[in-house]
């Protein structure tokens, strides 16, 4: 074999490094990379999004009541497609959260108001995630994301294994005591398909709840997404929620 | 030669098992499964056809024009009729047969209006609130305040 001089080796190595670097920078994006960079609502019409303005919520729980009426959700406590939590932050750093019967029973005033630094209501519901953990874990394909971005549970196909209830980072699912399937917010699919508002948005007296078509750049929700300072819950979970909050405190989980 | 027969036997068993798998698969997998994704596409339409209870904000004014126009000029203008009066699609579809009263009873009125207007340190400060125990405790709210034109 011919002798490979030091100079030749360095030259070849430098050339190879240059070629590799050039390739690394010029490789086109894979389909998966493109998917996460381009918001899906730019591709599909309509594509539903939801927003909550925490600074407007008065904790009247009309939404909780309307949701149960519209969707035949059992009236007993612990069966909620949406509920309203009250947060109480104290000078000591203590944080108390309560939601008596989802908010329907009203909230007792704190016995020691002097220690409270701030308090507010946070409506909770399914986040209709872009990357939903509940859909990933379903063993039979009964829970899924529709083409317009809503997460649903197929009641005829669900085997009731409850895995999705465990997987949801937001506690938005429950086991339906009558139907014996997993149940959750459908974003009032039977209403929005007919051009109506969801029941919770319909009855909200202060406009704290908002929903609409993200694929329409002129819709109120698109404007809200673009212009307000927003937060999502548990962003570290990587579920990419399409439920965004305005005015969310860092203590909210 | 004998060896080939062995192989053939295995091949036949394998083919039969595969055919059996295909038959079972056709029988068990729902018709519309996989059409739009890893789910039964028909389930989406089933959800879209579920019955409604709330009529929506534009249904009431067609008959109750006076109340609708009063409310439209008041500070309650952005509140939907069904926020206070409840789900009313049944009444909208059959206004003559479904005539149950839909306003809060006088005895429950203070609690009902209080859902929104009772003082609470958790509510946004700019929202109008009263102390129910101090603000004319024995009077029903609508003695002074008309819900369609609140003052």
Structure description:
The complex is a heterodimer of chains A (about 250) and B (about 150). Chain A is of the alpha+beta class. Chain A has 8 helices and 11 strands. In chain A, about 40% of the residues are buried. The mean pLDDT of chain A is about 90. Chain B has 3 domains: about 45 residues; about 50 residues, no CATH class; about 50 residues, no CATH class. In chain B, about 40% of the residues lie in helices and about 0% in strands. Chain B starts with a helix and ends in a 34-residue tail after the last helix. The model of chain B has no long low-confidence stretch (mean pLDDT about 90). Chain B is built from 6 helices and no strands.
Question: What's the helix and strand layout?
Answer:
The complex is a heterodimer of chains A (253) and B (151).
Chain A: H1 6-26, H2 31-37, E1 48-53, H3 62-71, E2 82-90, E3 95-98, E4 116-125, H4 133-137, E5 143-145, E6 151-153, H5 163-167, E7 174-175, E8 182-183, H6 189-192, H7 199-203, E9 209-213, H8 220-227, E10 230-231, E11 243-246
Parallel strand pairs in A: 1-11
Antiparallel strand pairs in A: 1-9, 2-3, 2-4, 5-6, 7-8, 10-11
Chain B: H1 2-28, H2 42-48, H3 65-72, H4 81-85, H5 89-93, H6 109-117
Keywords, separated by commas or semicolons:
heterodimer, A: 253 residues, alpha+beta, Alpha-Beta Plaits, 4-stranded mixed sheet, 3-stranded antiparallel sheet, 11 strands, 26% helix, 20% strand, B: 151 residues, mainly alpha, 3 domains, elongated
Number of strands of chain A: 11
Largest sheet of chain B: none
Strand content of chain A: 15-25%
Q: Which stretches of chain A are low in confidence, meaning pLDDT under 50 for 5 or more residues running?
A: none
Which strand-content bin applies to the residues of chain B?
under 5%
Order of strands across the main sheet of chain A: 9-1-11-10
Q: Write the element-wise H/E pattern of chain A from the N-terminal end onward.
A: HHEHEEEHEEHEEHHEHEE
Amino-to-carboxy terminus distance of chain A: 68 Å
Structural category of chain A is: alpha+beta
């Amino acid at each position: 074999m011919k002798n490979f001089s030091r100079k030749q080796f360095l030259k070849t190595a430098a050339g190879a490094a240059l070629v590799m670097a050039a390739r690394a920078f010029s490789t086109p994006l894979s389909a998966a990379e493109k998917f996460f960079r381009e918001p899906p609502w730019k591709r599909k019409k309509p594509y539903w999004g939801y927003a909550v303005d925490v600074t407007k919520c008065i904790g009247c729980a009309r939404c909780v009541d309307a949701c149960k009426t519209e969707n035949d959700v059992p009236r007993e406590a612990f069966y909620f497609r949406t509920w309203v939590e009250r947060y109480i932050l104290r000078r000591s750093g203590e944080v108390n959260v309560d939601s008596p019967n989802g908010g329907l029973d009203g909230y007792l005033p704190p016995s020691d108001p002097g220690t409270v630094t701030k308090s507010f209501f946070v409506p909770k519901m399914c986040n209709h995630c872009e990357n939903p953990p509940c859909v990933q874990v379903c063993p039979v394909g009964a829970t899924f994301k529709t083409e317009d971005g809503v997460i649903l549970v197929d009641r005829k196909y669900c085997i009731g294994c409850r895995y999705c209830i465990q997987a949801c980072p937001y506690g938005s699912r429950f086991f339906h005591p009558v139907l014996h399937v997993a149940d959750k917010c459908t974003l009032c699919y039977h209403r929005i398909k007919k051009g109506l508002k969801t029941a919770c948005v319909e009855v909200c007296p202060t406009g704290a709840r908002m929903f609409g078509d993200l694929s329409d750049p002129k819709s109120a929700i698109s404007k809200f997404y673009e212009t307000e300072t927003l937060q999502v819950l548990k962003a570290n979970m990587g579920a990419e929620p399409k439920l965004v909050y305005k005015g969310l405190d860092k203590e909210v989980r | 030669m004998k060896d080939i027969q062995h192989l053939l036997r295995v091949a036949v068993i394998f083919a039969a098992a595969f055919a059996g798998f295909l038959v079972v698969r056709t029988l068990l997998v729902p018709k519309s499964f996989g059409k739009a994704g890893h789910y039964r596409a028909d389930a989406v339409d089933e959800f879209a056809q579920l019955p409604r209870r709330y009529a929506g904000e534009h249904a009431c004014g067609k008959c109750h024009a006076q109340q609708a126009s009063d409310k439209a000029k008041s500070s309650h203008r952005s509140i939907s009729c069904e926020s206070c009066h409840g789900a009313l699609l049944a009444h909208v579809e059959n206004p003559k047969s479904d005539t149950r009263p839909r306003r809060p009873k006088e005895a429950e009125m203070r609690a009902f209006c209080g859902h929104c207007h009772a003082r609470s340190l958790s509510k946004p400060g700019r929202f109008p609130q009263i102390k129910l125990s101090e603000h004319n405790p024995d009077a029903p709210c609508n003695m002074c305040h008309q819900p369609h034109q609140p003052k």
